Amino acid sequence: MKPGRTSGIRKRRTATLLALMLAILATATGNDPLGAAPLFTVPPTDSDATGTHQPLPAAGFTVSPLSQTRVWLAAHPTDPRTPALRAALGARPDALWLTGTDRDLPNLTEFLAVARSTATTPVIALYNIPGRDDGITGPTARIAAAGYRTWVDRIASTIGRTGAIVVVEPDALWLADRQYRDDHTGFDDRLATLRYAVTALHRNPGTHVYLDAGTSSGSVTPDRMAVLLRGAGASTRTGFAVNVSSFGPPAEITAYAQRIRDALMRAGVADPHYIVDTSRNGNPVWDNNTWCNPPGRKIGSAPTARPSPTAPGLDANIWVKAPGTSDGSCGVGKGSSGGDFLPGVAMAMIR
């Protein structure tokens, strides 16, 4: 056996052992509120824990005409709320969500064309993981693994050499322990599917990939999330996203992200980086058990690459879920569907 190969095996064994120790520690110390959550882990394989981090361009993010916010504004020019909403939200870039519909590729193509014409960076969220089911609202995706991989390949091919930020699968890791408590195979498949998406997207040199890492509500500990992230392909090149579609206030979400970052470094990732969804976290007080259209929310910091002041590893504040966009028929959005733009809610958020 060649010395170089022996060294590589030792490194992988060390990384695997560290990941297992982190998972065991999280449960043994009572930090995992899931109690009997499985300690399933997938050791890092083809992800590069010490690769080169690619700084985000500082030119700004793409303002898409496809945003629910701008679609509503365009359709309601005489609504008395339109001037205030246009001033506060109309020029703020938010993400294009790709959810497995037949509009995904046409919408993506249009979004990328706007990005190229404005020399800005588009933010894209993939939300179509096989078996996605939060245990509350029921299954929302029924795609099979093979179909998902084909879908990801088409998205990656469409993005091509256009610089882009891609947030990979909100909730996929956050809910993995809950969904696959007694299903080791299903758990392994979830992480393998995420690793496939990361690898496919990274074939494009200008694509910045961030795995979703949940929020600071306490449902998953930072140490446990770090184990899940490593199993899904987090590395110095592949970052993580926190607070996507959620409401964690700045101080709280920063502490959560920094604890994940510390745990990843202990597990062998040289320099973990992350982004924060600040679209709805402007109120410093939050009942973290209320995740669906809670009242009293405010918009947070504007989308900015390389924000200042910054925290170690923070690449950007972004708006993934547009302010005033419904989480479903609940809370202050009762009677709406997920993704609907609610002008009354949006007005309350900007006041």
From TrEMBL:
<dbReference type="Pfam" id="PF01341">
    <property type="entry name" value="Glyco_hydro_6"/>
</dbReference>
<feature type="signal peptide">
    <location>
        <begin position="1"/>
        <end position="28"/>
    </location>
</feature>
<dbReference type="InterPro" id="IPR016288">
    <property type="entry name" value="Beta_cellobiohydrolase"/>
</dbReference>
<feature type="binding site">
    <location>
        <position position="321"/>
    </location>
    <ligand>
        <name>substrate</name>
    </ligand>
</feature>
<dbReference type="GO" id="GO:0004553">
    <property type="term" value="F:hydrolase activity, hydrolyzing O-glycosyl compounds"/>
</dbReference>
<dbReference type="GO" id="GO:0030245">
    <property type="term" value="P:cellulose catabolic process"/>
</dbReference>
<feature type="binding site">
    <location>
        <position position="291"/>
    </location>
    <ligand>
        <name>substrate</name>
    </ligand>
</feature>
<comment type="similarity">
    <text>Belongs to the glycosyl hydrolase family 6.</text>
</comment>
<feature type="active site" description="Proton donor">
    <location>
        <position position="171"/>
    </location>
</feature>
<keyword id="KW-0136">Cellulose degradation</keyword>
<keyword id="KW-0624">Polysaccharide degradation</keyword>
<keyword id="KW-0119">Carbohydrate metabolism</keyword>
<feature type="binding site">
    <location>
        <position position="97"/>
    </location>
    <ligand>
        <name>substrate</name>
    </ligand>
</feature>
<protein>
    <recommendedName>
        <fullName>Glucanase</fullName>
        <ecNumber>3.2.1.-</ecNumber>
    </recommendedName>
</protein>
<keyword id="KW-0326">Glycosidase</keyword>
<keyword id="KW-0378">Hydrolase</keyword>
<dbReference type="InterPro" id="IPR036434">
    <property type="entry name" value="Beta_cellobiohydrolase_sf"/>
</dbReference>
<keyword id="KW-0732">Signal</keyword>
<feature type="active site" description="Proton acceptor">
    <location>
        <position position="327"/>
    </location>
</feature>
